[in-house]
Amino acid sequence: MRLSIVIPVLNEAANLGAALAPLQGLRAKGHEVIVVDGGSVDATLDVARRYADRVIASARGRARQLNAGLSAVSGDVVLLLHADTCLPLHADQRIEEALTTRVWGRFDVRIAGRSRWLPLVSAMMNLRSRLTGIATGDQAIFAWREALVSIGGVPDLPLMEDVALSKKLRRLSPPACLRERVTTSGRRWMANGPIRTITLMWALRLAFFLGVSPDRLARAYYPPGRTE
Which residues contact 24 (CB under 8 A, 6 or more apart)? Predict the structure, then answer.
């Protein structure tokens, strides 16, 4: 198995080096790292070129950036990784083992931060994912490249693209829910408050389930002027 790790970025210069450095061991084993930039105006591109096999420019938006990366991969398996999420040790081995019986999967997640609410939020995310077969982008979704191509890639939505992707992949097989944890930054949760953030996310998911337009949901989620 050769793994292609696709990372969408936007103005991540301050944190990207720390996120990409741990992936160099995987690159040394023959896996590839592809960074897809959505129009950064800081030094993100300079940092990415030091640590990635390929750096691609794309239209802004996580789904569009992921699809741009998907079109460039050469590996058998694609791992969709957020720029502020770190993989556990031996992630490639665990993915390979999981995909012997499943088409796709994801890791459990741990949200890093000082708030005492974050471990509870993490546990709830992992439990919900197991019960529903729906993964979030924070959980580092992975799948056979052929499976992603067969469903048309990542749904081109401004928000909830991970939910829509999970639903499509779930038709091919249930997800492999790995108990090894990726660690994702709690910066969004800390900036807006854990309770406020999770309440907002629940409300957005419910609205999405009820058919509210993803464009309308994105306007409620992202600050003015941001789409990522």
Answer: 51
Q: What is the CATH number of domain 3-188?
A: 3.90.550.10
Query: What does pTM read for this prediction?
Result: 0.88
Buried b (16+ CB within 10 A) or exposed e, 89-124: eebbebbeebbeebbbbbbbbbbbbeeebbeebbee
Q: How far apart are CA 83 and CA 197, in angstroms?
A: 19
User: Would you call 59 helix, strand, or coil by DSSP?
Assistant: coil
Query: Which residues lie closer than 8 Å to 6 by C-beta, 6 or more apart?
Result: 34, 36, 66, 69, 70, 73, 78, 79, 80, 81
User: For residues 172 and 148, what is the distance between their CA atoms, to the nearest angstrom?
Assistant: 10
**Rounded CA separation 189/79 (Å):** 24
Tens-place pLDDT, residues 7-55: 999 999 999 999 999 999 999 999 999 999 999 999 999 999 999 999 9
Q: Please say whether the beta carbons of 37 and 9 come within 8 A.
A: yes
Side chain identity, residue 106: R
Angstrom distance (rounded) from CA 163 to CA 120: 21
Residue pLDDT, tens place only, 187-209: 776 667 666 777 777 777 777 77
Q: How far apart are the C-alpha atoms of 44 and 52, rounded to whole Å?
A: 12
